[in-house]
Design a protein that fits this description.
It is built from 10 helices and 9 strands. By secondary structure, it is α/β, with parallel strands linked by helices. The longest helix has 18 residues. It starts with 13 loop residues before the first strand and ends in an 11-residue tail after the last helix.
C-alpha cells in the first residue's frame, strides 16, 4: 500500500514594492521576516552614482564618544579604514550596501536567517564587515554555488562560482529544516545502503547547479536572474510554511516565485521598472505597492524577452 503524500501547503502571498529599497524597508517593523535573501549588484564597476550618494547621506554618524566594537574587539571604524587601504572603491560600494544590511538585520526575526549572495569581487570584504556588524558568532555558512556555463578565459582559472554568506540572528534559536530540503544523488551510491541511495543525501555547502537555461521555462529575460533551484533550497531550509520572506533586490522575482509555491509569504522591493514588469508578468496575482509615478511602472513589452 502506497503512503499518500502530505497535502501541499497553500500558496503564499506576494507583495511587490516599487521604490528605493532603503526608503521602503525603513518602514517595515522590527523582526518581521524569518528569511531574508539579498542578491545586490556585484560591484562590477557600473555602480549607480545616485544610489551611492543617497546611501552616504543616510548613514547616521556615531554619537561622540561611542566606539562600535566588532571583529575580535577591534574598533569598527578602524576596520573600515583598514579595508579602504586595499580597495579605493570600498567607500562607494559599501556606502551603498552597508546601511541596507543594517536594516536587514533589524528586520530579521529572532529565529531568522540572512543570505547575502555575492561573487569574488566583494565576498571577502563582506565576510569581515558582516562579522563586525552582526557578530562573528552569528556566522553560519559560506555556500559556494558552482556552475559551468558561458565563456571561459584562457589567461587564468575560469571564474565559475558565486558565494552566499549565511548569518543567523541568534545561533541558539535559528530555524534550519534539513529534512525539508530536496535531497541530491550520492556521487558513489554503491558505497551506501540502498535505502540511503534511494533517499539521496543532504546537500553540502558546495552546490553544483546550472544557471538559468536560455531556453528553459524559468527564463524571464532579466539579465541577473538566479535559478529557482538555488532559492528553493534556501527557502526550504530556513523558513516554514506561513513564514515571511524578504528580498529587497528583487530583480526577476525568483525569491517570491519559489517562496509562494512553497507556502511562504514573500515581500519584494525593487526600483527598476524593468524588474517590476518582469515580476508582474511572472507573478500575476502579486500585490503592487508603488512609491513612484505610475507611468514609470509601465514598460514596453518590446524591451523584454517574452516569457515562455
Amino acid at each position: 500500500m502506497t503512503t499518500p503524500s502530505p497535502p501541499a501547503a497553500p500558496r503564499g502571498s506576494v507583495t511587490v514594492h516599487h521604490g528605493d529599497n532603503l526608503d521602503v524597508i525603513r518602514n517595515f517593523p522590527d523582526a518581521s521576516f524569518t528569511l531574508i535573501y539579498l542578491d545586490p549588484p556585484f560591484n562590477t564597476g557600473r555602480m549607480r552614482e545616485r544610489s551611492v550618494e543617497r546611501a552616504r547621506a543616510t548613514v547616521p554618524e556615531a554619537p561622540a564618544g561611542v566606539v562600535r566594537r566588532g571583529f575580535h574587539g577591534r574598533e569598527y571604524e578602524r576596520l573600515r579604514g583598514d579595508l579602504r587601504t586595499y580597495d579605493d572603491r570600498f567607500d562607494d560600494y559599501w556606502g551603498f550596501l552597508e546601511p541596507r544590511l543594517e536594516e536587514a538585520w533589524r528586520l530579521l526575526a529572532p529565529d531568522g536567517t540572512l543570505y547575502l549572495h555575492l561573487d569574488f569581487r566583494e565576498a571577502h570584504y563582506a565576510k569581515v564587515l558582516m562579522d563586525a556588524l552582526f557578530g562573528r558568532e552569528n556566522f553560519l555558512n559560506e555556500l559556494v554555488w558552482a556552475y559551468d556555463y558561458g565563456a571561459k578565459t584562457r589567461r587564468r582559472w575560469p571564474t565559475k562560482h558565486d558565494t552566499i554568506l549565511v548569518y543567523v540572528k541568534d545561533p541558539d534559536r535559528y530555524w534550519f529544516d534539513s529534512d525539508g530540503v530536496d535531497r541530491e544523488p550520492y556521487m558513489a551510491p554503491g558505497l551506501v545502503t540502498p535505502e540511503k541511495a534511494a533517499r539521496g543525501k543532504l546537500p553540502t555547502d558546495v552546490w553544483w547547479h546550472t544557471i538559468v537555461p536560455t531556453t528553459g521555462r524559468e527564463k524571464t529575460g532579466y539579465p541577473t536572474q538566479k535559478p529557482e533551484g538555488i532559492l528553493r533550497r534556501i527557502v526550504q531550509a530556513s523558513s516554514r510554511p506561513g513564514d515571511r520572506v524578504l528580498d529587497f533586490f528583487a530583480g526577476s522575482g525568483t525569491t517570491a516565485a519559489v517562496a509562494a509555491s512553497l507556502g511562504r509569504n514573500a515581500v519584494l522591493v525593487d526600483d527598476n521598472p524593468a524588474a517590476i514588469e518582469v515580476i508582474r508578468r511572472r507573478i500575476p496575482d502579486a500585490e503592487l505597492v508603488t512609491s513612484v509615478p505610475l507611468e514609470q511602472v509601465a514598460r514596453s513589452d518590446a524591451a523584454l524577452e517574452p516569457l515562455p
